[in-house]
Specification:
Number of helices: 4
Keywords: Coiled coil, Membrane, Transmembrane, Transmembrane helix
Number of domains: 1
Shape: rod-shaped
Protein name: DUF1003 domain-containing protein
Structural class: mainly alpha
InterPro entries: DUF1003
Radius of gyration: 39 Å
Oligomer: single chain
């Protein structure tokens, strides 16, 4: 997830800076944060996969498998080979007694029509299920991003408050240091006068 507090490690050998803040992270801590984020994403995806598998019926899983097979080069290769074998078998003149679908291959056209009529709705069923899953995942992503944005805003507010307190402490320290300097100057002046009086006596 690429949020406003994404870690920028470019140009640093041993440390990195959180964007927007002067906070240094060692390379080890940066890698640890990246690992935690990856583990969190994997746990969410595994939870979504588990829920998807649990709520899927046998007919749904069958539709997914048919759609996966029907939309692959493997299916195209095997189906093309079957069509070529069908046409060659029914076109060779020396095995004419064994022909079951002579040209113009009416039975083949009927089989193709049945295949197209059933395959299209099954693929659409699988696509609708996948769209529902994608919508569910997008809602989870939105919730995660929204939560991360809130946490980033809290961190920013906390850092700004710390910065403001630091400025106030710096000003107070400067005033106290000035008072100490004035006090030291006064003490030094008194010591000088005391030494002068001692010399005169």
């Amino acid at each position: 997830m690429n949020q406003g507090s994404a870690i920028d490690t470019a140009g640093f050998d041993e440390a990195s800076i959180i964007q927007g803040f002067d906070i240094e992270l060692s390379e080890k801590n940066a890698q640890r944060i990246d690992g935690l984020v990856d583990d969190y994403e994997k746990s969410i995806l595994s939870r979504v996969d588990e829920e998807y598998t649990t709520n899927t019926t046998f007919s749904g899983r069958l539709a997914d498998r048919i759609a996966s097979l029907g939309g692959s080069w493997t299916f195209i290769g095997y189906f093309g080979a079957a069509l070529v074998a069908w046409m060659i078998w029914n076109s060779l003149p020396f095995i004419k007694p064994l022909h079951f679908d002579e040209p113009p291959f009416i039975l083949l056209n009927l089989c193709l029509s049945f295949l197209a009529a059933f395959q299209a709705p099954i693929i659409m069923m699988s696509q609708n299920r996948q769209n529902a899953r994608d919508k569910h995942e997008s809602l989870i992503d939105f919730a995660i991003n929204y939560k991360a944005e809130q946490e980033i805003d809290d961190i920013q507010s906390h850092l700004h408050r710390i910065e403001a307190e630091g400025v106030r402490n710096k000003d107070q320290f400067s005033r106290e240091l000035q008072q100490i300097k004035q006090l030291l100057a006064s003490i030094e002046a008194k010591l000088d006068r005391a030494q002068e009086d001692a010399i005169i006596q």
